[in-house]
Amino acid sequence: MLITTILRISIRVIQLLANLFSIWITFGWKVRKTRKAFERELIQQGIPKREARRLSRSIKEAKDQIMSSLWKLAFSM
């Protein structure tokens, strides 16, 4: 009984970690694509490249805050 409970908990923890990892990878990929598209749009509108990069950095910072909150939530239990 105790062994099966430990195995079930272990499986759930592994599933949770795998899901968090896939979210991290997918979210990072989507943010990277969004940043590049945003930079291209700004440059096409006539904003200098340096300023476009500076503005798009806020997207990455927002992603970092979201992921930090997610990790804290997941591992505070």
Which secondary structure elements does this structure contain, and how are they paired or packed?
Blueprint lengths: L1 H43 L4 H27 L2
Helix pairs in contact: 1-2
What proportion of the residues form beta strands (DSSP E)?
under 5%
Helix amount: over 70%
Please state the structural category. mainly alpha
What's the N-to-C terminus distance? 24 Å
**How many distinct beta strands?**
0
Which outline best applies?
rod-shaped
Q: How many helix segments?
A: 2
Largest sheet: none
Provide the residue-averaged pLDDT.
89
- Helix-strand topology string: HH
The rounded Rg comes to 19 Å
- pLDDT under 50 segments (min length 5)? none
How many structural domains in the coordinates? 1
Please tag this protein with its features.
single chain; about 80 residues; mainly alpha; 2 helices; rod-shaped
Give a description of the structure.
- By secondary structure, this protein is an all-alpha fold.
- The protein has one domain.
- 91% of the residues lie in helices and 0% in strands.
- It contains 2 helices and no strands.
- Helix 1 packs antiparallel against helix 2.
- The longest helix has 43 residues, at 2-44.
